Amino acid sequence: MTSLSLPLQTDRLILRTFERTDASDLCAYHALPSMQRYVFTRTRNEADVAEALQVLRGHVSLQRPGDTLTLAMVRKGDKKVIGHVSLNWQDATSGQGEVRFCINPSFSGQGYTAEALSAMFDLAFDQFRIHRLFVRCDGRNHHSIKLMQKLGLRLEAHYREHALFQGEWDEELHFAILDREWNRSSKVKELPLRRQVA
User: Fold this and answer.
1) pLDDT digits over 155-190, tens only?
2) How many CB atoms lie within 10 A of CB 79?
3) pLDDT of amino acid 190
4) For residue 167, how many other CB atoms are within 10 A of its CB?
5) pLDDT band for position 7 (cuts 50, 70, 90)
6) What is the pTM of this model?
């Protein structure tokens, strides 16, 4: 993999690696009960969030399959961390990667996730030469489903009742896009979300 120049910038966000001082902002969304099915590390209190922050602070590069890069979504205006987006390099031979995202519900529906995902897709395809990206999505999360469609991803799988979470069956959707499809869709849709390397 190639060297990485951070932070990235979108119209309204700075995307950077996590810092020690992000604990309070991270706790504001990471510890919410409604977020536990979506986060890397389950968190119930500030101590759990501190441990999760350590994990996220270790996600700083892609050097070999299995590595993850996680970037905090920081609003330019107030420098508040409102979520994060991650790229996991899954397979080198076939160029496969997975993108995950998590946003503070107080800031959802305002286009921030679309900006962050667009920048991460650009990074994955342009700099890391990933061939195919996929994104998992809760089958009941209609906002995320619409976002995947807006970004040009195609639904490839629907896993019905594949796992139990707190006594409730999960419905998981897998969306994906190829490098050549992203290049085409980003031009056709004219998304105002392109990344700029600072």
Assistant:
1) 999 888 776 665 677 789 999 999 999 976 664 444
2) 10
3) 46
4) 5
5) very high
6) 0.88
Distance of CA 1 to the CA centre of its chain: 19
Q: What's the burial of 128, exposed, middle or buried (CB within 10 Å: 0-12/13-18/19+)?
A: middle
Measuring CA to CA, which residue among 56, 52, 44, 66 is closest to residue 16? 56
Q: Which residues constitute the domain of residue 154?
A: 8-197
Residue 24 lies in a domain: yes
Q: Is residue 1 part of a domain?
A: no
Strand 96-103 to strand 132-138: parallel, antiparallel, or no bridges (unpaired)?
A: parallel
Q: What average pLDDT score do residues 30-39 get? A: 83
- φ, ψ of residue 175 to 5 degrees: the values are -110, 150
CA distance 34 to 27: 13
Domains held by the chain: number: 1
Q: Alpha carbon of 131 to those of 6, 14, 110, 196: distances in Å?
A: 22, 25, 29, 21
Q: Report yes or no on 160 lying in a domain.
A: yes
